[in-house]
């Protein structure tokens, strides 16, 4: 008996043994290579927060401040269009209206200038494909004239303002309810001003990605023709990267994660068989590589796997929505009208902000909503208009 056990252990411990190969691969991958490669990846489990978070946050703030100054120079150098081109609506009905909702914030970052300059540049770059698109500014500062950046932008884009000066504040309107009312105002004004087919409501710290209009064109003209998408209440174009992991209570992500393992398990087994001179699949090894690839993708970060989908608009994913957050929300005209009716009947407060309010409507009203992956905007606003923080961090 002892001799048989010694023989068995000898077979397992020979260098040609698959067990030793896979054990070595696991130790080297998760104990050496992944920590060395991923320790600076913000949304990875291997991220060394104690080492990198403070300097990376400071570096991000400095870079963002420089981008704000660059956006300011962009508009200072830009030739002012004719008054008729920036004075409001005309008889044209746009396919897509991009409405930038803005409130006065830290002047040194020029958040709204960053967003507007990127959208303006990308529209020019898009050319004929984007002739049916328009940009509208929605100024919801209590005293609209005090918003300095909007005064500059009003020379280039049409603008609507929610002027509350001179009115007695309603004691029932907390900051979260005001944000919801501002959102309702901007969505309603978007429909009244241009009557577009689609409205993209963008907050003033959501900078668009380079491919946003190419992806939106594909979505609007091809993907949204499907009935289950055409009738959706809204589409989110941003979800926080820290909340994009596979290990999540959302069933669709668990299925995606299992599918990744089922695909990569046999593929990696074939690579292993070729490297070791083995001729056939081994289901225990397939299972190992499935679990290995699932663990590696989760620990490195699903966010970085999603980035591969940017290779082509057709690769972007549309999945059921989750409740957080609203930097960029796409509505069709009929769904925007439904959302307006729903939101007017809700009162927002601490713990029930407009993003949660919108999500709560899905079950209550029997609606559906979706999120586009990967994100089509970058959230750059580390200084919130709702929650004051003198020392913001990336996480």
Overview of the molecule:
The chain has 395 residues and is of the alpha/beta class. The chain has 13 helices and ten strands. The chain has an eight-stranded mixed sheet, with helices on both faces. It has a two-stranded antiparallel sheet with strand order 5-10. α6 runs antiparallel to α12. The protein is globular and about 80 Å long.
Straight-line distance between termini: 57 Å
Number of helices: 13
Spans of at least 5 consecutive residues whose pLDDT stays below 50 are 1-10, 82-89
Element-by-element helix/strand order:
HHHEHEHEHEEHHEHHHEEHHEE
Structural class: alpha/beta
Rg computed from alpha carbons, rounded to a whole number of angstroms: 25 Å
Shape assignment: globular
Largest sheet: 8 strands, mixed
Number of strands: 10
Helix content: 40-55%
Strand order of the largest sheet: 3-2-1-4-8-6-9-7
Overall pLDDT level: 87
Strand content: 5-15%
Defining key terms:
395 residues; alpha/beta; two-stranded antiparallel ribbon; 13 helices; 48% helix; disordered N terminus
Short description:
With 395 residues, the protein is an alpha/beta fold. 48% of the residues lie in helices and 12% in strands. The protein has 13 helices and 10 strands.
Secondary-structure map with pairings?
Elements: H1 2-13, H2 18-38, H3 49-77, E1 96-102, H4 111-126, E2 133-139, H5 148-153, E3 159-161, H6 175-194, E4 198-203, E5 206-208, H7 212-221, H8 227-230, E6 234-236, H9 251-276, H10 283-300, H11 302-306, E7 317-320, E8 328-332, H12 333-344, H13 354-365, E9 369-373, E10 377-379
Helix pairs in contact: 2-10, 3-4, 6-12, 9-10
